[in-house]
Amino acid sequence: MNLGNPETFTILEFAKLMIRLTGFQAKMVKLGLLQDDPERRKLDSSLTKSTLDWSPTVQLQESITRATKAVD
User: Helix, strand, or coil here: 15?
Assistant: First the structure.
């Protein structure tokens, strides 16, 4: 069962968001995809919704912001 957020984004988009929200300075190195690695993944949360009647209510950016504030 997947409890993630169905929103899709690339790893590059995620890395840039993390750097922007945390202020962490990092050098990014772009490597090629593995031979069988899909370019995008889309979460199927239908089992979670039908079994637990649950779906995420917080967007990725907000959850990262909350997490960084909790660490401070």
Answer: helix
In the numeric block, the tokens 């997947």 are attached to 2
Q: Are 11 and 52 spatial neighbours (Cβ–Cβ below 8 Å)?
A: no
pTM over 0.90: no
Can you give the length of the chain in residues? 72
Q: List pLDDT tens digits, range 13-64.
A: 888 888 888 888 888 888 877 787 776 667 788 888 899 998 888 888 888 8
Q: CA nearest 46: which of 57, 54, 35?
A: 54
**What is the rounded CA–CA span in Å between residue 61 and residue 18?**
9
Distance CA 50, CA 31 (A): 38
Alpha carbons 64 and 7: distance in angstroms, whole number: 14
Q: How far is Cα 42 from Cα 25, in angstroms, rounded to an integer?
A: 29
